[in-house]
Amino acid sequence: xxxxxxxxxxxxxxxxxxxxxxxxxxxxxxxxxxxxxxxxxxxxxxxxxxxxxxxxxxxxxxxxxxxxxxxxxxxxxxxxxxxxxxxxxxxxxxxxxxxxxxxxxxxxxxxxxxxxxxxxxxxxxxxxxxxxxxxxxxxxxxxxxxxxxxxxxxxxxxxxxxxxxxxxxxxxxxxxxxxxxxxxxxxxxxxxxxxxxxxxxxxxxxxxxxxxxxxxxxxxxxxxxxxxxxxxxxxxxxxxxxxxxxxxxxxxxxxxxxxxxxxxxxxxxxxxxxxxxxxxxxxxxxxxxxxxxxxxxxxxxxxxxxxxxxxxxxxxxxxxxxxxxx
Amino acid sequence: xxxxxxxxxxxxxxxxxxxxxxxxxxxxxxxxxxxxxxxxxxxxxxxxxxxxxxxxxxxxxxxxxxxxxxxxxxxxxxxxxxxxxxxxxxxxxxxxxxxxxxxxxxxxxxxxxxxxxxxxxxxxxxxxxxxxxxxxxxxxxxxxxxxxxxxxxxxxxxxxxxxxxxxxxxxxxxxxxxxxxxxxxxxxxxxxxxxxxxxxxxxxxxxxxxxxxxxxxxxxxxxxxxxxxxxxxxxxxxxxxxxxxxxxxxxxxxxxxxxxxxxxxxxxxxxxxxxxxxxxxxxxxxxxxxxxxxxxxxxxxxxxxxxxxxxxxxxxxxxxxxxxxxxxxxxxxxxxxxxxxxxxxxxxxxxxxxxxxxxxxxxx
Lengths: 326, 364
Ligand SMILES: Cc1ncc(C[n+]2csc(CCOP(=O)(O)OP(=O)(O)O)c2C)c(N)n1
Ligand SMILES: [Mg+2]
Prior knowledge:
The structure holds 2 protein chains of 2 kinds. Helices cover 37% and strands 18% of the residues of chain A. Chain A contains 12 helices and 14 strands. The mean pLDDT of chain A is 98. By secondary structure, chain B is α/β, with parallel strands linked by helices. Chains A and B meet through α11 and α12 of A and α13 of B. Bound molecules: thiamine diphosphate and magnesium ion (MG). Magnesium ion binds next to β5 of chain B.
């Protein structure tokens, strides 16, 4: 076992899948010689050559459109969007084709495609480098959306995404790309897409988060637990779509209280969907309204003001307390 | 049946200044002494500000940015050809062009320190749109603006910049194609600086020139030496004359070189060697233009020393002003989501202010 950060862990997953299956190809802007602007594909070009690690011309729609073709013809493309903010060119290829070729052909044509994209804020970068638009992709039936939060689950989920028979948008929380290291087993580890994970058990409140928000959420949970005699159950969503209602519903049935943390703007976010599912299944078990800590419905601020808007541990802690005190 | 030739195309290249600063007298544009010195000053200012920003970034005093060093001629020449009613639509490496359009020097610091204030230009400055980061996307806006100029019968044009990498984007081709169909008064300047982050120009397209992309759109295309400010100016002037005369768009490929890293987050040693960079420095557009004005007898070492002094003072003063600015209201973003008031946004503004208060209370 080696202690890896998220960048290295995804790199390990890509490397191992490429070694194992020669239908896996990597493509995108600067993913080859440069190893990707975040170095996620570092070393793969040298190891597997330019036919399997393709530095493409600068055109996102082209990258995904051709990836769909490759996938239809039996390859397993893993395409990189340099930043999620530049992925909107691909929306028509996803909505118009990748998401629906399976259903359109009643299962005869499939698109086993992975689209990796760093997303989220907190990196003092230029405009379009800080958005969280997972809900935008999660709204497409036929597309899976996965968001890892740690080196270990990032590795296990990228492997699952590559082996998945359908298009998977793999959104990488760049704020925590190198924030911490974790033991990642050298031997194969695969997580199931479509499952959330209880990362801390508790009985008084359910706290749901994903991606880079896991860390402030966990910090807030610890603070509250230190301050009062409560225990908080923390769920890492991991798969955004198709969502694992079961884990959340069961937890809320037990705790009766729930706070959801979302880096994205408030309206029509993933938190809204979680609240709807809780209402569908366990409304009568609730002891307090389900609470959410989200960004605001403003255009993502440039980084000078960004942190005033992003949910932080202090705000999460206050909302947990409000919900406990209800 | 024998095949017949239906059309024949060619691409021409234009250069006015040679490496030693000698101008071709046939092509030399008619610029006054004052204009030549103004161009030189702008090039020098862009270079000095760029290099200062690099230092500031390394010291953590501003964020990531894409240096423009080496591209002063390809950026400033075209912008200098614009009239006051024309529009400038730039990408992210066009400090020089933006300075020509009277964007305050401080904007580059505000913008790159994460404040939208860096996009706001004085009302009296000629039209210049905020920096566009999404590669190639802005070219379409220029075509739309040009259509509007034509529709309104205004004698004005739009000028847009994009890179060699951007030339691979559908948006760029669409912009040229629409402009051709509409005969829109727009000038497309492709600054071919040979690199798109780590991608050399040769891997971007099999096309031998980028200027020939104009051919497919049915519009005039021309290649110029992009380190020759007289050539970039003259080619743009000519394109603008055609645009004003209702003859439609032009595309100009300006051959230049990105002398620095892609952005401050990039390490060029991973993909290109120092020799290539050294050779490119030999073609630095600023000394070349300086030789030209020296030959003309309008510049000398004494004037140069005075200019350096003056520009250092201007850059220093701007950095000082920038670092003393504290008037960034956090909540103003709520004022600019929409042009109309909405209860939900106002409620969120109130929550935002409350959360901010609680956050700073805790921090104290
Ligand atoms: C649509 C889009 N894709 C990717 C990026 C990331 N990116 C920023 S600049 C750049 C390369 C641009 O190359 P070029 O057009 O030649 O301009 P240059 O950087 O050389 O000025 C890339 C890939 C982006 N900003 N926008
Ligand atoms: Mg370039």
